[in-house]
Design brief:
The chain is mainly beta. It has 2 helices and 12 strands.
Length: 182
């Protein structure tokens, strides 16, 4: 590029000092910048689907979790979570899984006494009928948290996500109780 008194595209000299820039070199970066800004605006803007009918409260949250808490045993990489789940919808709700960022693996277990000994077995799916309540408590159904990613301390709150069949999820915050607490 050369600077000087401009004679661009047959125009008469104006006395203004300017730099000669071919039209393409100005338009291409401008077009690219405009496209990039539009892309960013599209990605940053939340996209919502139009609602054709108002959502019922039971569709938004079919389950309510109450009395959630975590029991840990010092010196292990496992803990147990307990809570009460209540189906407030008019349809059966199926819990398909549970997870937390504080454990490598979480799953629902059931403790049963067989031949005088307590045995734990995985409970893959938890079905909760409309209007019913299921208690996950010591000595029965509970959530086992395996491969803890850090040390749990009493008073700490552990986030749990309960996965529901059909794509829903319930977020729960469970406090850690000291060993021996019920």
């Amino acid at each position: 590029m050369t600077a000087g008194v401009g004679h661009v595209g047959g125009e008469q000299p104006s006395g203004i000092i300017s730099a000669y820039c071919p039209r393409e070199s100005v338009l291409k970066p401008a077009a690219m910048l405009t496209g990039l800004l539009l892309l960013c605006a599209t990605v940053a803007t939340p996209q919502t689907a139009p609602q054709t009918a108002p959502r019922a409260a039971s569709q938004a949250a079919p389950l309510i979790a109450q009395d959630a808490w975590i029991r840990f045993t010092p010196g292990t990489d496992m803990a147990a979570a307990y809570l009460t789940l209540r189906n407030i919808s008019a349809a059966t709700v199926v819990v398909t899984g549970i997870h937390t960022p504080l454990a490598g693996h979480a799953m629902i277990h059931e403790t049963r006494v067989e031949g005088g000994q307590a045995r734990m077995r995985p409970h893959e799916r938890l079905t909760i009928e409309p209007g019913k309540t299921v208690r996950l408590e010591p000595g029965g159904l509970h959530v086992m948290l395996h491969e803890l990613t850090g040390k749990l301390v009493p008073g700490q709150r552990v986030p749990l996500t309960i996965d529901i069949e059909g794509g829903g999820a319930l977020q729960v915050s469970a406090p850690v109780r000291p060993p021996g607490a019920e």
